[in-house]
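FIELD: query
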Amino acid sequence: MEASVESLLCQGPPWGEGEGWGPEWPREQAYLHSLAAQYQVEQYQDSYNLMTAAPDSHLLHQVTAGPYAFPVDPSLRRATDTTAVQLSEMVSLPVLMKHSVTAPLLTHVFLVNKAIVDYYFMELNVERHCEALRHFLLMEDGEFAQSLSDLLFEKLGSGQTPGELLNPLVLNSILNKSLQYSLHGDSQLAANLTFALRFLPESFHPHAPDALACLELRYKVDWPLNIVITDSCMNKYNRIFSFLLQLKHMVWTLRDVWFHLKRAALVKGAGSSVQFRQLQLYRHEMQHFVKVIQGYIANQILHVTWSEFRTKLGSAANLDDIHRTHADYLNRAIFRWEENRLPHSYKVWSRG
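FIELD: result
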């Protein structure tokens, strides 16, 4: 039986007016009738047929059905149809877990990974930091690299001791002057650059290609960016920087040799000498060889590897992909210039 409030209101008082119900009864009834007309009164349920129905054995239909259900592979649905469970009329626990737990979990993992990738690209600007490392440590910025190497080698050639050259005041002055000539020196990321010493040599050998092997260019990387640009990656950047600095030193030394030969030709009149011309020819051949090596490393190794890195970085789906792509970029660059090692004659000549 279902009884409404309106049917109860139509009934009279259970007792007479003289038995506790005063003259206010009609007025209260009128007030309740007005409320019942203004609001829809809920009717109490007194029939529970749902409790007498048979249990629903197809639990999967309750999990995946509805407009907000997660899309699943159609083959998974076929694997849990009536034929598959006709013997027990029950869905197995692994299948139920796959649909009710695994699918939502994978969706949330995808959303979290996408949020992390967007954070690294939009907020942390990881690609801009990689470009800054390429400009400065890989010497893609030619003006910066030329100014930095010239200032270092001029002081090295003037006979300065390690204590005079390798002090913070001198090194910071060289770095600041080089950034003034740089095309990217006004960038905020340039403030992350600083010099550091691997070791302090007892003396310099000005004509040795690795005379400044003790020096490295550091780039400050804060958390959480250091998850991608790790200390291991920075060591690899400095390996390439040190090798490129050696090539710059060779070019600078050969240019200095040219100035000395030119001065000797003017002062001592040795320009017409056969030996003098032979020296100029050797110097020219060595300088041409070193510049060809510089161009090959810059264009066929570093530039090609950078293009591959940017292409792969655009398809990164999570933080591990970003880290792996950056590490592979450096490993590939180092492998390519180590795989194409310079000939033995260059090694012998470079050792002096």
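FIELD: remark
DSSP finds 13 helices and two strands in the chain.
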